[in-house]
Records
---
Amino acid sequence: MDTTTDVVPVRQTAAERRSLPDFRDIAEAFADKEKVCRKPVPMRVENPRTFEVSYVGAPCKSTVASVCPACAEQARYLRMTQCREGWHLEDEPEDRKKDPTEHQQALLATRADLFNNYQQTKTDGDTEFISRSGIVEVVASIDAELRDTGLRKRLPPLDPPAKARRVRSTRRRQDVPNLPRRRVSKATIGRQFAGRFRPSMFVTLTLPSYGAVLSDGSPVDFATYDYTRAARDVVFFSNLVDRWIDNLRRVVGYNVQYWGTIEPQKRGAPHLHIALRGAITHKIIQQVTNATYFQAWWPRFDAEDRVYGNDEQMPVWDHKRATFVDPATRKPLNDFEDALDTLGEVDNWEPAHVARFGVQVDSKGILGGTEESSRHIGYMTKYLTKSIGEVLEAKTPRAADHYDRLHNELQYVPCSKKCAVWLRFGIIPEGASDKTVPGRCKGKAHRRSTLGLPGRRVLNSRQWSGKTLPDHKADRAEFVRQLLASVGIEKPDTSHLRVTPVQPGDQNALPRDHLIMAAIAQRKTWRAEYVRAMLAAGPPAAQETSAILTAA
């Protein structure tokens, strides 16, 4: 007897079919589950020994969880490692600066002779000899060779641009208290107490109040809220933090190292959570905060200084003169340096803006290796996987209106000397060209998604841990490599491979779906090897924290 029955498929509507996940949706969801990058970048791998070519997916390295949760979480853990390793150091970090090689010194000696000959010939006015001898081309080749040997910073040009030095008063403002000043030593480690305790500090700094706000961050009274000052303080917040660090080092007398994160408050103003190495009293931190300010010595950009307030009547680019001119008179505008020269002739020239911190300052001593230290590290890095727009997502219509007003005010605050907003005030910014849109700057300070907050969310000093982020990442990889090698799992050497981005039009490149599947399979293999090595290493009590002394 045949018991089989025909199964009639359920008819689906078009809307139901569109709601079904496709293959990439499933692959990305599974990649999130396996903690694999969901948006891998196709890379071309060439083996110069065997001439074999393969294609792999490199992590996208996004720091925003809504874009790629796996890469964002990995970046956050790396920042946590960086913060933890440098916060409570017992010894001075190792100076990894390399000494110049004999080859570099020989190249520099040759360049110095050519530079001397060039300057002497230029002084004699023999321009024809300069063009015939090819000194400029030879120096350019030497510079290229110097860069190939490993060189940081820029090389001095043969014809350095002449810069007029502006002299301004360095006297402190009379409306701020004076600070004691000590000679800053090279030490970066704080004091030790009772022969064994070396606490460090956790400090929170905020900007002043611009008006009373409600629980959603919106002001109680929109009319009296100081949006002008709020927008300017946001733009110059990073400069204010730099002044605070400099003042703190001068007061305590040693090279204080720091690691901090900048996060927005509900009202849209940034505040700083910063970890300081070494014990500093709250009295000193409060004193330094009260006495710290930043003065913007720029041309004034108040509302009454706007020359072109209407977007329809903005300066226009004159192609014959290669500069911006007034739309009515066709006269060229003053550039930024000319505007500063004009202001330099004014007696009692006042800064365009003075930024200061608010009165609320929180500081707390933290001991290393404690649960409290780990909790504060997690607190500082809590929002690193979210963008500024996600953190400042408006919960109410009033909050949305408040953010829109702040964003509108930021459209009239220049963010740098190259900002196109200067054209609203009749000033040509540095580096302006025919592609510059008057009054429209592409900087992050003017975007609605950032509300003036800086692009760098994490600030850390150079001698914090003695390592860069790639160094910390390499330490983690070395720890795993040594752990696998202890159980006989040897990874192949890949240092000789040439990895380059896939060029557009490469027909052999794999689609993203295949790259995700390959990454998931590889991750499973790695995880199985790591679990095998951990089981072979014994119980956690018998294991060392790290395979190398400086690793995380």
---
Amino acid sequence: MARSSPSRLDWGWRVTPAAGAVMTAGGAYSLAAAGGLADLPPAYALLTAGTGALAQAGADLYQRRPRGHMVTRCVAWLAAGGWSAVALAGHSAFTWSTAGWWGAGTAAAVVAARGLADAEESAKSERVQRRLQKWANGKAGEWEKLLAELFRLEGHQVNGVTPWKGDVGYTVRVQMPAGTPELPAAADRTLAGALRLPRGGGIQITDGMVYGEIQIRVTAKDVLAEDVDLPLGPEDTSITSIYDGFPLGLQPDAEEVRIRMVDDCALITGQIGSGKTNTVNDLNAAALRTADAVVMHIDVTGAGISLPWLRSWAVDGTATVPLIDWSADTVEEAHILCDTLIAGIAARKSGHQDLLTEDDKIAVNADIPAVVLLVDEIAELPMTLLHKLDTIVNTGRAVRVRVGICGLRATQDVITAAMKKQSRNRVGMRVSDAEELHHLFPVGGARTNPKAAPYRGCGFYCAPNDEDIVSDPVPFKAYRITPKMISGLSVRYADRRPRLEPVFLDTEPGRYYASRWARILPRLYKTKQLAATTRPYTDLEVLRPPLDEIKGIPITTSSAPIASGGPRPQSLPQRPARFGGDLLSQILDAARTATGHHDQAPGGESNVIRAEFGRVVQEAGTPEDRPNPVPQLLAEAHQHVVAAGGRMHTGDLSARMGMDAVTLGTELNRLMRDVGVERPGKGSIRAGTDKEPKSGYLAETLAAAIRGYAQRDTQ
């Protein structure tokens, strides 16, 4: 089982048989030459040779080598000692005759050593194969008898038994009778009980390679119960390609789990505390190990999946480049990122037509890298951003832009239909309710039992295999990766990070790419001192796109209309205001006057809050000469949420409005349901300073309800 181990010098004695023979011959010649100059008695050479022969005999007996091989090696030692003794007696080590005999003896020793080693290796393999065949034949007979006794089968045949590595289990291939093509539904539990398998072991029955054959996978050891560190050896951190797939952990048979994102997107779900974040970091480590994939993140809840990988560059200064190419920590930044990817996808399709002559998909390399976008906490994103992610998912395959979606659930109140349908790589971490797995794995999910992956860091996965066939969900244990490991990997992987080619970035949204870290780092690290390695990314003019005054989202292209003739992109000191307040405040005042409740308007509200509500009403098209159709409770709640930054917990909102939290939540939910508006993510949001997921409201959700009332009144 693969485990991480610290880097250290290897003092192991690893020499080939030929090298060992040459070293022995060299020692004999050195003894003869130096001893001749020092008048060493010949008996010392014979004593050394005899000691070597005795040690060789003991080693051969311990390793149970053939006696003929042992005699041959001992004779070689004595021959070397005899030659040395003759050379010492005649002081002739430097004569051509003596040196010639030494060379001939050395050549013979090398040939003999290689022959003996090859013969012993073949004999060892044959012994292992005979032992394995004997074990398999015995197991086959036991299984034929067991199946006949438990299920009253006749005419079945066990075609083979294959052990797994690590002695954790084996696979039985059974040719079923013509009239009984498969075992009963509860056969796995029946067989597990009959075999007295330990807790954590189990039986999995799958279809065989041909019709009428089944495979019974027997797990005799609980691999999932053990914590397995991410392998960090030299062979485990060498440069790879996105075509090799991304390792995530181990299956119950100790085989490595890999998902391939060069063609397909990925969907990762899991309840709080299931190890989902650890699995996402495994995916980060695997993607960053490659030299032909650029990794980007969207995490509007604080960039939690990015910060560990950015620390070595942004704070410690031990990495020269950011490992994460772009980390969108706010909804606005996520819009800019998605617009850049959408434009880059179109640019690649037209700019790299010469690369699509033999295939309809671009072959990626370090010069034209793939783009892997990982999106965490998908439930926190507004619908406008989800639509853009759908566009990337649906159009990015040919140019190797793929998306990994991470969320608490796989239901459509959290992710969109396009994300789910286009994500053939699916990972579901530990859950307590089997229904959650049924949402994620529509094929084979009904047979998936959460008890098969009961430990922290366990889950189920399904992904296309080498034949592009998606298998049924299989339990696995994710590799454990710690912040200390991430810091070490960040330094090691920094030098292999590729860059997006000019074709991808030569677009209108692409102009905001260069100053991305100048916008992001001050938000992520606030007053913390940044390392000097960040200066090439921050010491430049900061571009921010203008905001649409109607929708409140960044405008990155000239084709998108800017309400009220808004400004074009400006540098940071000239950032435009979000809303035009005066005109929309008049609309709001007119609506209040018409309803006769002008005296209820709050007197100390800021112009921005009133303009935000007026923007929503104006967008919905409510006439100014008609009473305001929007319930006052909904309007006031929207104003308070906007003033709080766009999201607010129910308890905080009720305190602002002077109402009971339960009463407020019940009434607001009723008002939204009346116009068909539901809160995303079952109403759970992250807001305030603690960023804890609690029941609350988004300004965009309340705005949708306001538009619904205005549009219903117009109709």
---
Amino acid sequence: MWADAGKMLPMMGVSRTRGHSLMFQGKPFWTEAYNIHVNGVLHCRVRYSQLYGLHEQLRKEYGTHVLPHFPPKKFFTLTAAELEQRREQLEKYIQSVRQDCLLGGSEAFNSFLRKAQQETQQIPTQEVQLDVYLSNGQKIKVNIFSSDQTEDVLEAVAAKLDLPDELVGYFSLFLIREGSDDICSFVRKLQEFELPYISVTSLKNTEYRIVLRKSYWDTAYDNDVMENRVGLNLLYAQTVADIERGWILVNKEQHRQLKSLQEKGSKKEFISLAQTLKYYGYIKFDPCITDFPEKGCHVIVSAGNNELNFHVKLPNDQIKEGSFKVTRMRCWRVTSSQVPIVNGTANSPVKTETKLELAFEYLMSKDRLQWVTISSPQAIMMSISLQAMVDELMVKKSGGNLKKMLKKRMNGGLRRSDSQQAVKSPPLLDSPDSNREPIVKLSPPLKMSLTFSRYRKSINSTNEAKAKTSPPLQLRYWDTAYDNDVMENRVGLNLLYAQTVADIERGWILVNKEQHRQLKSLQEKGSKKEFISLAQTLKYYGYIKFDPCITDFPEKGCHVIVSAGNNELNFHVKLPNDQIKEGSFKVTRMRCWRVTSSQVPIVNGTANSPVKTETKLELAFEYLMSKDRLQWVTISSPQAIMMSISLQAMVDELMVKKSGGNLKKMLKKRMNGGLRRSDSQQAVKSPPLLDSPDSNREPIVKLSSKLSSVSIRGIGTSNSSNDISANDFHGNYAFEGIGDDDL
């Protein structure tokens, strides 16, 4: 039920440094600044005030409930310990924002990092010439601005090569290091938050270069690329280079055949033959260390064909080869730790370096899972490769559009739900090493979750001022199939259109950039029916979003935003560790629910003041978590009654739909307050009024006919001796027969 909101990302770290020297009362003093590192390489240097400004901008755009904790301002000079604590908190904040699908992909966050990178390196915006290399070493000079982001540079390279727009997403820019021994080492794939010209220039080392390579893993898509002359040439150049590096294994006979095809200029046939060779389409990483099959083994890892391939040198100098399929990985993650650098002098200050490890849990046999760890500076690149292979597997399995996925990946906007695959995400596990610092779960294999950025204030509805001063007229049904009945009438169409526009503006309906563009186009054309039809395909269409409140699921005291619609209550929960999770509770799996009220004292801070109280409302429902396990879930909210009424309305519509009854008749009775459950023509007997299991408690209605014995001892009530009476709650039961298919 729960989907992890995490995201596959580069590792970001924060360290302290001295900032600018300022003058105060004629004396110089230094401001505190922070270095932000990406995969161990300095990206930018920022002050606390700049990070605070970013936090405020994100807060205004997305709301406080979405953001992780930000270290507050201090009015006094911080001690060394407090400065280190603030640094750790800022590092955690930056990592949490970057790992959040909504915040990490936002233009506010990425533009902040791009601007900070440019300011740190002190490179003004100007026209420059950037060298981008093909896999065969050919240099492509592109004229760009120093402030152009990765997507802009990729498009400039594609335009220079005359590569069609529809094939641009099949390629990406990579930062590599080409040593004097001609060994190619992948550093990272360039991201949307960096400026490629500044990234490579700031390294001040000619061994680093930007290379254009294909960005997909499934070799079946080579056919799409080879249909175009430029795409064919790029793929051919990469294949030849990988053979020359020894990444693709070739025997003498295959080498002779390839040489013959090369001399004839038969590029397609050359690639077709290469596709049959071992390790075609793989990336080979630098030698590193693994704990499989024994600790401390030297290994060469290659990624491709939906696997990690190991060439392991055992302690007895024996060489073994094996593969770990991504489909058998339960989960994986990257951890970082600081290890001392041995310099051989006793009195020298201890220096440290960052150690990266990729650890994955693998299904070795039917009943045996085992952790495998790789210690490598390229751990992030390995992890990103695994995630890309998972993305393609999911899209292929669901029959999705790879071109669309590649385009989103290029723009940094890929969401795991684009695969539309309903596979449960594994839980976040502790690191196999208790001394290792857990950073992020970098991927739930074969599980993707959906979060789109909100685009507000860009689709304007009329009478906005009037809407602020008068109660809005809202549609009162939940099943969106009945929209067609409403749209047959001109006035009904206008009302439904106005409500849809308003829900998009509020952020209740989630819209991505492409959908926003389509909606804007339909709005300008006045195509209201088409506008609504497109909106019906969006996430949370037809939902009502309630104010932030408190829940006890999955832990007590969690902040949550509840939405009602599509026969469910949707939860966006902020856990105590600031992680955001999303999940849904289907009304068909609720055994019963009720609302309770209690009087709680208002803390006013004065000892002699009379104690004042306020009413606290709670909605509690008993939910079928699994076939044999029921659990109570409680929501503390002033809108608990509205949530309960929403649940009842959804049940009513389900019953009418199941029995073939008349929805119009039901809605009319609901409007007049005369709705009876028998109007659904459903042959379900209402349970009798039972005695309470507690003799001191007034009889309360049995909330469900599914189970014979119901215990309703004070769920969410205060500890007072006074129990709730029948008038203190609004509750109902989920009818027998609904939800049986779900079980």
---
Amino acid sequence: MADFRVKRVGHAHAKIKNVPIAVTPEGFWCCPSQVAQRGDLSKRKERHPSLRTDSMKRSSSHQPAGKLTPVKPRSVVSDEQRSVDLETIDDQRVEKRVVSVGYGEAETRDCEVFLSGKQGFTVKLSVHADVLAGKSDFFGDKIGRSLTNPCRIEIEDCEDVEVYVEAVGLMYCKDIKQKLIKQSISRVLQLLKVSEMIGFHAATNSCLAFLEAVPWIGEEEEKVVTSLQGLQVNAAGVTPLLKRVYPQIRIAPNDILADIFQLVVKGDEEKGRREMKSLILKLLKENKFSNHGAVDICNVNLYSSCRSCLDALLLLFTQAAEAGFTDTHMNSKESISKQIALQADNLLWLFEILIDRRTADEYMFMWACQDDLVMLHPKVSIASRHPVSSITSRLFVAIGRGEVLPPKDTRCLLLEKWLQPLIDDYTWLLHACRSFDGKLVEEGVGRTILTLPLENQQSVLLSWLGNFLKIGSNCPNLQQAFEVWWKRAFVRPYLEEQQLLLQNST
């Protein structure tokens, strides 16, 4: 058990005060600030009214300071530490607070280390020269140059005196790594910094071993990486830690992204696919690639995945369009229908990523050129094929919102090839797909049509009109777009002609 006691200072004008000492549960010493001491004392008085009574009694009896009962610590600093002495000097001429800490056997201490902290107090360490010289290059050099007996070492403007005291205390520990268990990462980083500064290699290695074993993420990760990169020595111990965030071998983003996309598009467990698609989409939105080459690599992988999904979709449509497919076993039909829906979902997900990256023009052209898929579409049952029309719907919505700006030829081709299949599947989409928004799709299709030259608008809308007059509400309602086209085709020319006649007459 460590022996804590208060020393009297032999000065005519000095007053000795009882200074509390705080000891962490892990056995490290720390000196609380004056504000913290007052706050802690007031809290203890509130919890224990007897403390207030005792204090009042001592105040009224004017008991000499030397007879005060020292405050006992809550735990032992270390097995090897024998005593911690506290001195507080409150002089009218010199305002100074000194805390004295002793390590090891008091009779054999032959070195004094004075640590002047920025917190406004000085710590005097009574230690053994051979211990410090054997554990620290810095102290070994200072002790070797010292001409006094006992030797005296002064360190001015310490950023954190407590950490220095802990570092010296660790020189008396047999197992430093054990002392670091349950310490916070921030505290160990402080000890690591001081240990490196004073050349305390055993503590430096123990701190690095601690950091290598404990998990650190988020803000802690940034603190650790910054601290490790600031170390000047011990590269052999730092390198394994930095491998946690920096690869030993240069990563090829192209290969990794390709693997990730392929794993997701080939996965068939619904919940896992949904969660990972959402996560990857979020990560790609939050972490934009900083250089143009990385952007190109990502886009190359995205379009490679798109082509892979389109090839798989075409193969499934070919199987579903075969003459004897309707007579096949129910399980086989359900499997193919499920795979068609899966590939359509993959293509929708990839399109969302490309929209966010503003590189979806090529996707629009790829979809508009799927002649074989369009040709097979009416040969496949509507129950199996309708997910494909969901892709067409999303593309029209994207054009209507201005999320993608495909050229005129692509827009014409898209309407020419895919509007009729969408009309054929519209009823099923309205009733079978919960996420399908008919109003939004109608608005997107209408706005896409109105981006074309007037002659193309006329061709598409008259074709739509023939469908609408046959199937009514089972067809997308494009009356709003039809009205805009009507005004452009008939009203605007008449108004402009009348205005021209008016100007000529005047």
